[in-house]
Design brief:
Number of domains of chain A: 1
Distance between the termini of chain C: 58 Å
CATH architecture of chain A: Up-down Bundle
Oligomer: heterotetramer
CATH architecture of chain C: Up-down Bundle
Largest interface: A-B, 98 and 91 residues
Largest sheet of chain A: none
CATH class of chain A: Mainly Alpha
Distance between the termini of chain A: 44 Å
Helix content of chain C: over 70%
Structural class of chain C: mainly alpha
Chains: A mainly alpha (545), B alpha+beta (378), C mainly alpha (224), D mainly alpha (100)
Order of helices and strands of chain C: HHHHHH
CATH superfamily of chain C: Cytochrome c oxidase, subunit III, four-helix bundle
Largest sheet of chain C: none
Number of helices of chain A: 17
Number of strands of chain A: 0
Radius of gyration of chain C: 21 Å
Structural class of chain A: mainly alpha
CATH superfamily of chain A: Cytochrome c oxidase-like, subunit I domain
Shape of chain A: globular
CATH topology of chain A: Cytochrome C Oxidase, Chain A
Chain lengths: 545, 378, 224, 100
């Protein structure tokens, strides 16, 4: 696909047509080409994870386990989780949009370590191959959480390749984060102070901190799981002295911050979109930027809220519950600021903005249900039920995937030089929103009614809501298929985008679409704050900036 | 096919308490969501772009506003926190007179055993209006005991006891689910909790007994494993005298004291050297890891509990109640032979906290001189 | 960050295309290494955390493992590693002022110390293996049969942590070899000594990990 | 930011201190200080680490950014251990009903 893409874009020399041949892609160190490589690979994994989800929803239309055996179903939800979380959500925005945009947004020619950037893509692919091997060999049935001692002692499935795959993909994530941190610190264009950075860069920086600090711990935890599974020395096996709860502590030390790895980049995208389509600097710039960092730090203090019913000490549970409420404050700040940005703005309903509306609404619901889950007594009933499933899908899909799609639409002209069909895109955004709510809304009720998650067969009284959910999922699938088709279509037939089709501010819009290999002809110099849509500031004497 | 309900059954005191908090939070969530949605829609429509050239003025932001919309939600969240924590504490802390039932989870069934020896699989029968404490152990992986109608859930973790208590309020049959993924037939690890009127429950319990009480089963195991050769009751053996041991404070050889509760007994059977009673030798008792199942351990525990009661005179006496009260001390009154309810039932769903505490304190006084006494060998 | 030269002219051969000047390149590489070391702290930190928890859970078993440890060997190894850190620091110092011969000497000395460390470590492993203290390889614990399982976990952590440390030593030796070759081909100097500097950071970090492993693994209950 | 060349003397001095500290730890380990053994050992280890970080790794001449990253590493490691221990350390606490 990529080489054809080069022929079609007949604009002057840009990163797509500068060189050609598969080698020029597989051995590229250009951050933009690596971003495209990532884009293609995560789309493959998204499709795979979506396929598993479809099969699960099909099974769940009837209360009896009639479509698949329970073993197959268990493998389906495990592989759905592993693929979606480790191979789609975590790399999604950072590795595609982040990779593509960060050097441009900071006015650099490339990331600080281009070779390491390529290495991280290869690690991702190797990790992915291990995960695929696990699927092809027969699947894994531990749940994406790999809880011990089930994963270490009792599961008869291919846990090792999956664990190795996630372990390797973790290093890909670490290297991406490392690259971003150094780039933001050391590669900024002259005049681009921290206070002038786009909010997307701020949130990516916060994300990178989590990747660098958290991922090594899950790596070591999974290494211990592997060790235990291979040699059975008892690290997590209570029968011979180990403590299975320790695994949960170590696992969630990473995996809770990991949800912020997934959502923070989405928040960054939304900050860009809301600003651009209101033609206004986001309200409370410094609070949005600061809240990203606050989320990154506080996010490390709350992992124990996944363990309220495990027999964790109730005093520890109390501490974790309290800290979980703390982390909600910066998230709330962001939502309020986005809304306030539109106040006295000039709002236009382009597709990316529609996704941003969707994000704000769905993330609000996801966040508020998160507060309910952080409440100790409430968590006891609804944890491990469909309420949790609905909660994190509202945040991860309603939040993160909406932001990803919004960002993809927003920067698609920059990435490819072509516009997507606007009418279709708006329609798809609407379908996705309706389908999404229909899929996951009923699951909140299922959770309150008491339907546990990861159930292959369930009590008959849960059927109506499950049917509703499955019906919604089919609409959601359509909502995802449409953009996939018109994005491909637009590569050839899309209207040519100018350098800045949205009239947006930001260094990435000051170069050509698609950008040349080294992004800018001359290193840009920044003289004003980000998002200076209001040029009266300058005319009136530039007292700001 | 059961009818479709929008609201789950509420059949325990904990469920009522939960629902009030739950609907409060749902209401807050709806109000907040509405506010945000309304704001987004209102601004999006009111300030839609009317001409391509318009440029709105920059509004930099307002620290005052930021503080307002951080502090107010946080105060609301604090109500969530304190309310939720208070309820959670309450639900973690069984009253002293709770009736004890044992649950052993294994792939993929729930095995329930009553102190009088009645056993059930995937069924749990409990009386209305009586606090019931479940002591739960797992033989393999982590399971989770979940009764939606009680709004309670607790993981059953191998290698330790987890406890859960409730007071059922409404007779009926309610779902019991395993809520922690435990392997192939996870979704089949389900059952029913039957809440019965007190009379019905007593009749049911008496009619169900099979092989004798748990304590008598435990006594058999105690003999079979040869425990009785060292743990003597009349004179001093090589190992501590177990009479009166349960529920007392035990002085250890390293100077610490522990309460001899279920968890301590379990540990001492599986890892005898972990906590040696002061005055006794290490390495005399071998570990019984692998020789006894979780159920055996529970029966042995019941047996040791029954020893505590016979020493104190009649096991029905109220005063010998839990020595230190609360979750670990557990109820000993209903252990041993015979019916669970011989000592009369507590009519209140939950005994007032103060009373329970007073009871606990009373009981701990006589226990105080006991430490390390079992052997008397100092 | 001021006065960035935006032209490409005068790019020295070792300046990568996407950096503006050597200064930025050195700074970025150094910061990159520090961020990597941050990752490493958490990587080893995960093990230290798990170890700490088991240690508090099983104090008795932990104390019983000490009889199989050789504090003196561990101490010597610590000293060896500290010496290697000194020589590494000196190699960096001479790279800063461009003394090729001295760089060579100190890099080789560093490697010798590193290899000596690994030699001692592996002889210890051999002794443990002889004593059946390697978990999953006919593990035996006759002195304290009651601690069999717990000691097995503890020895597992011992091998896991020291093993990962040794792995890092091997990587470090590889990097030093690469530096030696590089040192012959080009001249390090005040203009460009980035590779030596960041390898040095890495080497010192590995040293620090051992500084903590030594008291935690070797010195518990040495007085008993 | 500029890397000043540190005199050899400084390196040798630090090295000497580190070696002394190592043998001090070793010696102290054979004394019986009760629970203080591990405290002293760790304190010496921290001192040694600080010396290596400050002098051998040139953090003393580095800007605050590097220092921030070093401190952050230990801060988050501290969070991991402290919050995990908040569970393990309080599991055997009496439940509130029994505290009074």
């Amino acid at each position: 696909m990529s080489t054809e893409l080069v022929d079609r874009v007949d604009s002057p020399v840009n990163y797509l047509n500068a060189t050609s041949g598969w080698k020029s892609w597989l051995f590229t160190t250009d951050h933009k080409r690596i971003a495209v490589l990532y884009l293609i690979s995560i789309t493959v994994f998204f499709g795979l994870g979506g396929l598993f989800a479809t099969l699960m929803r099909l099974e769940l239309t009837t209360p009896q386990g009639d479509l698949f055996t329970s073993d197959t179903y268990n493998k389906l939800f495990t592989m759905h989780g592993i693929v979606m979380i480790f191979f789609f959500l975590i790399p999604s925005i950072p590795a595609t949009l982040g990779n593509f945009l960060i050097p441009m947004m900071v006015g650099a020619r490339d990331l600080a370590f281009p070779k390491i950037n390529l290495l991280s893509w290869y690690l991702y692919i190797i990790g992915g191959i291990f995960a695929l091997t696990a699927i092809v060999m027969g699947g894994v049935d531990t749940g994406w959480t790999f809880y011990t001692p089930y994963s270490t002692t009792y599961s008869n499935t291919f846990v090792m390749p999956a664990v190795v795959g996630v372990f390797i993909a973790g290093f890909s994530s670490i290297l991406t984060g490392l690259n971003f941190i150094v780039t933001v610190h050391k590669m900024r264009a002259p005049g681009l102070t921290w206070g002038r950075l786009p909010l997307f860069v701020w949130s990516m920086y916060a994300t990178s901190l989590i990747q660098v600090l958290g991922t090594p711990v899950v790596a070591i935890t999974l290494a211990l799981v592997g060790l235990e599974r291979l040699f059975h020395v008892g690290i997590f096996d209570p029968a011979i002295g180990g403590d299975p709860i320790l695994f949960q502590h170590m696992f969630w030390f990473y995996s809770h911050p990991a949800v912020y790895i997934m959502i923070l980049p989405g928040m960054g995208v939304i900050s860009e979109l809301v600003g651009c389509f209101s033609r206004k600097r986001p309200f409370g710039y410094s609070f949005i930027a600061g809240s990203s960092l606050a989320i990154a730090v506080l996010g490390f203090l709350v992992w124990g809220h996944h363990m309220f019913v495990t027999g964790q000490s109730m005093y520890a549970s109390m501490v974790f519950s309290f800290l979980s409420f703390l982390v909600a404050v910066p998230s709330a700040i962001k939502v309020f600021n986005w809304t306030a940005t539109m106040y006295r703005g000039s709002v236009v309903y382009s597709t990316p903005m529609l996704y941003a509306f969707g994000f704000i609404g769905l993330f609000t619901i996801g966040g508020l249900t998160g507060l309910m889950l952080a409440t100790l007594a409430v968590d006891v009933h609804v944890t491990r039920t469909y309420f949790v499933v609905a909660h994190f899908h509202y945040v991860m899909v309603g939040g993160m995937v909406f932001a990803y799609l919004g960002g993809l639409h927003f920067w698609w002209p920059k990435i490819t030089g072509r516009m997507y069909p606007e009418a279709w895109a708006r329609f798809a955004a609407l379908v996705t929103f309706v389908g999404f709510n229909l899929t996951f809304g009923p699951q909140f009720m299922l959770g309150y009614l008491g339907m546990p998650r990861r159930y292959h067969a369930y009590a008959p009284e849960f059927q109506p809501l499950n049917v509703l959910s499955s019906a919604g999922a089919s609409i959601l699938a359509v909502g995802y298929a449409i953009p996939f088709i018109y994005f491909l279509w637009s590569l050839k037939y899309g209207e040519k985008a100018g350098n800045n089709p949205w009239g947006a501010k930001g260094l990435e819009w000051e170069t050509t679409s698609p950008p040349p290999t080294f992004n800018f002809d001359h290193t840009p110099t920044v003289t004003g704050p980000a998002y200076d849509y209001d040029n009266r500031e300058k005319e009136e004497g530039g007292e700001i900036g | 096919m059961p009818e479709f309900h929008l609201l789950p059954d509420a059949a325990a005191v904990s469920a009522t308490g939960f629902d009030i908090l739950w609907w409060y939070e749902v209401a807050v969530a709806i109000v907040m969501t509405t506010l945000i949605f309304a704001g987004v829609f209102f601004f999006a429509i009111k300030y839609r772009r009317r001409s391509e050239t318009e440029t709105p003025r920059t509004i930099e932001g307002s620290p005052l506003l930021e503080i307002t919309w951080s502090v107010i939600p946080f105060v609301v969240m604090l109500t969530f926190f304190f309310w939720g924590a208070a309820l959670y504490f309450h639900n973690q802390n069984p009253p002293a007179d709770a009736m004890n039932i044992y649950v052993v989870a294994k792939q993929w069934m729930w095995k329930v055993q009553y102190p009088n020896g009645v056993r059930e699989i995937n069924e749990l029968h409990v009386p209305v209006g009586r606090a019931v404490k479940l002591t739960m152990a797992s033989e393999d992986v982590i399971h989770s005991f979940f009764v939606p109608a009680f709004r309670l859930k607790r993981d059953v973790v191998p290698g330790r006891y987890n406890e859960m208590w409730f007071t059922a309020t409404k007779p009926g049959r309610y779902h019991l689910f395993c809520a922690e993924y435990c392997g192939t037939e996870h979704s089949g690890m389900i059952g029913w909790v039957t809440v019965m009127e007190k009379k019905d429950f007593e009749n049911w319990l008496v009619s169900g007994g099979g092989e004798g009480s748990m304590a008598s089963q435990g006594q058999k195991i105690f003999q079979q494993l040869g425990c009785s050769t060292c743990h003597l009751f009349d004179e001093q053996g090589r190992c501590p005298n177990l009479k009166g041991m349960y529920g007392s404070r035990v002085l250890l050889s390293d100077g610490r004291t522990v309460v001899a509760d279920e968890a301590y007994i379990r540990e001492s059977i599986l890892d005898p050297n972990a906590k040696i009673v002061a005055g006794f030798q290490k390495d005399i008792m071998p570990t019984f890891q692998g020789q006894v199942s979780e159920e055996d351990i529970l029966e042995l525990t019941e047996y040791i509990k029954s020893l505590a009661e016979t020493r104190g005179g009649m096991f029905t006496s109220e005063q010998t109640g839990p020595t230190t009260g609360g979750a670990r001390g557990g109820s000993i009154a209903n252990a041993g032979q015979g019916s669970l309810d011989t000592r009369g039932t507590s009519m209140t769903n939950q005994p007032p906290r103060a009373e329970a505490n007073a009871q606990a304190q009373d009981a701990s006084q006589p226990a105080a001189p006991k430490p390390a006494a079992p052997g008397g060998k100092r | 960050m001021a006065d960035l030269d935006t032209t490409i002219e005068g790019h020295p051969p070792f300046l990568q295309h996407h950096f503006d000047d050597l200064h930025q390149q050195l700074d970025s590489s150094t910061l990159g290494m520090w961020v990597f070391l941050l990752t490493e702290i958490m990587f080893f930190g995960g093990m230290f955390g798990a170890y700490t928890i088991y240690r508090t859970m099983y104090p008795g078993a932990f104390a019983s493992t000490s009889r199989y440890m050789e504090p003196v060997l561990g101490g010597i190894n610590t000293a060896v590693l500290i010496c290697s850190s000194l020589t590494m620091a000196l190699a960096v110092r001479y790279a800063q002022i461009g003394k090729r011969k001295l760089i060579r000497i100190f890099l080789i000395l560093t490697m010798i110390f590193g290899i000596a460390f690994i030699g001692v470590k592996f002889s210890e492993y051999y002794m443990h293996w002889k004593e059946h203290l390697v978990p999953w390889m006919d593990f035996q614990y006759p002195e304290h049969p009651e601690f069999f399982h717990q000691a097995q976990i503890l020895f597992c952590f011992y091998f896991f942590m020291t093993g990962f440390h040794a792995l890092h030593m091997f990587v470090g030796l590889g990097l030093l070899t690469w530096l030696l070759i590089k040192n012959e081909r080009m001249s390090f100097g005040s203009e460009y000594y980035t590779p030596v500097e960041i390898t040095g950071l890495y080497w010192h970090f590995v040293d620090i990990v051992w500084i903590f492993l030594f008291p935690l693994l070797y010195l518990i209950g040495a007085n008993k | 930011m500029n890397h000043k060349v540190v005199p050899v003397r400084t390196y040798l001095l630090i090295w000497a201190i580190l070696i002394c500290a190592t043998f001090t730890t070793l010696g102290i380990a054979f004394l019986d200080l009760g629970p203080w053994n591990i405290v002293v050992a760790l304190m010496i280890a921290f001192t040694k680490m600080s010396l290596v970080v400050l002098f051998f790794m040139h953090v003393k001449q580095q800007n605050n950014l590097t220092r921030l990253f070093v401190v952050a590493g230990f801060l988050f490691l501290g969070i991991l251990i402290a919050l995990a221990m908040s569970d393990y350390g309080t599991r055997n606490w009496l439940t509130p009903g029994r505290m009074w």
